[in-house]
Specification:
The protein is an alpha/beta fold. It contains 13 helices and 16 strands. The strands form three sheets. Strands 1, 2, 3, 4, 5, 6, 7 and 8 form an eight-stranded mixed sheet that branches. A six-stranded parallel sheet has the order 11-10-9-12-13-14, with helices on both faces. A two-stranded antiparallel ribbon has the order 15-16. Helix 5 links the parallel strand 7 and strand 8.
């Protein structure tokens, strides 16, 4: 379980790929002092080049090639993996990985942590009874639940029935050096921009092009702006890939708004792109704590986001940006129109967002909170077996 005095944490996720939760995991691994803990990432399915963002060279990536649907053999592979690498802590993340807690307990992993980072795409409002039952069933085997937002914390305690003493809230952190405001005026968009952006307000978004993120509402809001005569004043830049990319393009094209928009697909230069935006917009239907909102705030941008999930815990309505109802392109267009017309408001809200990011959402604060969880568990030296009995952990 330990080597050279360093306990091993096995982080279990569904897939190591581009995403907010995965980005937070990489930041955590990179920032925890190497002399304190070792890490391994266990991906239930596979891994992509996103793993290259882990700057440490001592972090194995273990892929278990989970088959679609119910893969009963996965639990045996998990059990064997845990017995082989002997972690002191297993930290699972989100519903897709929560069942790995059972395998960890069966393998006598001393400490188990489960993190809730956002709503499941199949359960956007947390109403599915089966998912609540699954979390409740594994709760006795979990020593600490980590909720990334107040809403998720309330869900675990009030609706799932997890004891409040087991739940800790840890908001994501943002790299304040990597994500920073432009030095003076906004930076230029990269080569290939299909329109003249000079003199225009750049409305930008970084998001996955899938239903839960609802990029179609943002596209339809921009269409309304074009119909209201804002095409000479504003343009739209969407960063991200996914199954709805073509449909977003179709919505813009059919309204003759595509010539004022740039669908960039997936990019690696997000920090510099944010410094080329004037306003950040996010039209998600559900959210936990959005990394892209934090990155936009750190970049000194006013944020217009839907009033869902943890967005209201990040965006102070009227101070660092604005909150609008979800699935309402008209309301989103109205707020964006004001941002376009009021340069002073954009600057004021962007500065307020940066100040809040510096005060509350730095990576060091996030890492310190996770270390508090890990250190606290190791200090107890106890675990709970499959029958709920307290056992002394022998290191």
């Amino acid at each position: 379980m330990t080597r050279d005095g360093r306990p091993l944490i096995a982080h279990v996720i569904h897939r190591l790929d581009v995403g907010g939760m995965e980005n937070g995991l990489v930041n955590l691994i990179n920032r925890i002092p190497g002399e304190r803990y070792r890490h391994a990432v266990v991906s239930l399915t596979d891994s992509t080049s996103f793993a290259d963002r882990i700057s440490r060279n001592d972090v194995p990536i273990i892929t278990l090639d989970k088959k679609p649907g119910h893969d009963l053999g996965l639990h045996l592979r998990l059990f064997r993996t845990f017995r082989r690498i002997r972690p002191a802590i297993v930290h699972t993340r989100n519903l897709a990985a929560v069942e790995a807690v059972v395998s960890a307990a069966a393998a006598f992993v001393p400490h188990r942590v489960h993190g809730e980072h956002g709503r499941d795409v199949q359960d956007p409002d947390g109403s599915r009874r089966r998912y609540r039952w699954l979390r409740r069933a594994v709760s006795p085997l979990v020593h600490r639940f980590v909720a990334l937002s107040g809403e998720l914390e309330e869900y675990l305690v009030e609706r799932v029935g997890v004891p409040a003493s087991k739940v800790v809230r840890i908001v994501n952190g943002v790299d304040l050096e990597r994500f920073r405001p432009a030095a003076s005026r906004r930076e230029p968009l990269p080569e290939g921009v299909p329109f003249d952006s000079s003199g225009r307000v750049v409305i930008g978004s970084v998001t996955r092009m899938q239903e839960v993120k609802d990029p179609l509402t943002l596209a339809r809001a921009f269409v309304r702006l074009v119909e209201r005569g804002f095409a000479s004043k504003a343009c739209l830049v969407l960063v991200g890939d996914g199954p709805l990319l073509e449909e977003v393009h179709k919505v813009l094209q059919e309204a003759d708004a595509s010539r004022h928009a740039w669908l960039m697909g997936s990019r690696e230069d997000v920090p510099s792109l944010l410094r080329a935006f004037d306003v950040f917009a996010l039209s998600s239907r559900v959210e936990g704590i959005s990394n892209t909102i934090l990155e936009a705030m750190a970049s000194g941008l006013p944020v217009v986001a839907t009033r869902v999930g943890g967005n209201g815990e990040l965006v102070e309505d009227g101070v660092t940006g604005a909150l609008v109802p979800s699935r309402d392109p008209g309301a989103l267009a109205d707020v964006l129109a004001r941002c376009i017309d009021e340069k002073g408001l954009r600057g004021e809200q962007g500065r307020a967002g940066r100040a809040r990011a510096e005060k509350e959402f730095g990576l060091d604060a996030m890492v310190a909170r996770y270390l508090g969880v890990y250190d606290g568990l190791l200090a107890t030296g106890r675990e709970i077996d499959l029958r709920g009995n307290q056992l002394r952990c022998a290191e």
